Amino acid sequence: MTTSAAAPAHTALEEACSAVGLDADGAEPVRLAENQIWRLPGQQVIVRIARTGQSAAASREVRVARWLAENDVPAVRVVDVEQPVEAGGRPVTFWKELPSHEQGTPRDIAQLLRQLHALGAPDLELGYLDPFVRIAERLQAATTLDEADRAWLHGLHQDLVVAWSDLPAGRADCAVHGDAWPGNLIRTGSGPVMMDLERFSLGPPEWDLVSTAVRTRTTGAVTAAEYDSFCAAYGFDVTDWAGYEILAGARELRLVTYAAQHAAGNPVWADQAQYRVDCLRGRHGPRPWNWKGIL
């Protein structure tokens, strides 16, 4: 992001910090993207400036964080101030800075998900899981793909929506993280911790479990031994469930369209986006495929 583009966000940062009694002097940018992340040195506070129009989502994320704290689930904690704060037309939230950390292992992820799912449905307005959120917008933006591939992906999307509406019975609905991959369920020196709570919703716990299964069966990022460890730690293998192929298909479609959307703005990802489409269309043999991460 350019300096000129970051300036309005820094103004919002200063305004929001002032409103809750924090000092924005010397704030360090951590990530300046659609959602901007700033660090307040010496205060152990992370400030998150969300996109315009995301006030309801920011409020929900704060409520979820407090609910997780009340139930002793290891997760990012909010700073004890009234929040979110509206500044510069954008919702701003304040979080306790995590210590040095790394991506979580499959076992770490399983342990956190087992603890979360055991809580059942909270007395919070979370909304129900939509596994296809932003898929249509991503396909619209996928300009590096040709019309035939985009039409095929649109058809797959519609088929999966129909299948989702008649999902086989599974485990009881509960609070789900919604994006349970190793970058969001991380490991600190004191153990695994859950972060990035913006996709929390009510839904089938299988959705959280499918992420690791797909990383084993589809992308090849998780070994068979690591997946066995994941299943042992959680106590259930989602691939044995009758609805697995539907949710796995939805997760694969998300991974493909995510790559395609990013390729439209950064040509370095165009080959990977096309490769993912080709895999789904049967042009590269059976699963697992070696899909490289999109940064």
Total count of helical runs of at least 4 residues: 9
Can you give the mean pLDDT?
94
The tally of domains stands at 2
End-to-end CA span: 15 Å
Looking across the biggest beta sheet, what order are the strands in?
1-2-3-5-4
Order of helices and strands: HEEEHEEEHHHEEEEHHHH
Fraction of residues in β-strands: 5-15%
Report the top-level CATH class of the largest domain: Alpha Beta
- CATH topology tier name of the largest domain: Aminoglycoside 3'-phosphotransferase, Chain: A, domain 2
How does the overall form come out from the CA principal axes?
Answer: globular
CATH superfamily of the largest domain: Aminoglycoside phosphotransferase (APH), C-terminal lobe
Enumerate the spans where pLDDT stays under 50 for 5 or more consecutive residues.
Answer: 1-5
Explain briefly what this protein structure is.
The chain is an alpha+beta fold. It has helices at residues 3-20, 55-70, 106-117, 135-141, 147-165, 206-217, 224-234, 244-265, 270-280, and strands at residues 28-32, 36-40, 45-49, 85-87, 90-96, 101-103, 174-176, 185-188, 191-194, 201-203.
What key attributes describe this structure?
alpha+beta; Phosphorylase Kinase, domain 1; Aminoglycoside 3'-phosphotransferase, Chain: A, domain 2; 5-stranded antiparallel beta sheet; 3-stranded antiparallel beta sheet; 43% helix; 14% strand; globular
